[in-house]
Amino acid sequence: MHEYVIAVGIVESLREFSFRSGRVVKSFRVVVGELSMLNLEQLSEALKRLIEASEVSGAQFSIEVEPARVRCGTCGYEMAFSEAVSGLSEEERETIHFLPDLIASYAECRRCGSLDLRVVEGRGVSVRDVIYVEH
Ligand SMILES: [Zn+2]
User: Fold this and answer.
1) Mean pLDDT, the chain, as a whole number?
2) Which residues are registered as beta bridge partners of 33?
3) I need a labelling partner for 104 at 20 to 30 A (CA). Which of 2, 51, 72, 130 fits?
4) How far is ligand 1, taken at its centre, from the CA of residue 78, in Å?
5) pTM
């Protein structure tokens, strides 16, 4: 369900872009954050169906996962999400996966020990590298 809503948003944006610019979208890349909780197969299926039925039919796309990254607000150290949570229990990891904002309550900076951690990448969904041709 969530996947479908995301797919609608993506296809709408591409249609809007195509309509306003008079360009034909040939391909694009969908980058999905590691923590976005999306089912990639469902997202792909929804995109295929929606694209076929729209003005951007024929557009090709690929979907890839962007690893989540965590930044320390105290020393600026950046680490992979997996590194930040590596010392935690399975249960704690799962909690953070669902509620990334709580990372500071569980994990600490690998370099300085600060609890001021923030997830800076790997949560959202974005469309990148839209390739198009003029009409
Ligand atoms: Zn730090």
Assistant:
1) 94
2) 66
3) 2
4) 8
5) 0.83
Distance 112 CA to ligand 1 centre (A): 4
Label residues 119-133 b or e (16+ Cβ within 10 Å = b): bebbbebebeebebe
Which structure tokens are listed for 105?
């309550």
Residue 98 has a pLDDT of 86
Between the CA of 75 and the centroid of ligand 1 the distance, in Å, is 4
pLDDT in tens, 105-119: 999 999 999 999 999
Distance 33 CA to ligand 1 centre (A): 23
Q: How far does the centroid of ligand 1 lie from the alpha carbon of residue 31, in Å?
A: 28
Residue 105, helix vs strand vs coil: helix
CA-angle at 31, arms to 39 and 96, nearest 5°:
60
- Number of CB atoms found within 10 A of residue 53's CB: 10
Q: CB–CB of 124/27 below 8 Å?
A: no
7-66 confidence digits (pLDDT tens)? 999 999 999 999 999 999 999 999 999 999 899 999 999 999 999 999 999 999 999 999
Instruction: Check if the beta carbon of residue 106 is closer than 8 Å to that of residue 99.
Output: no
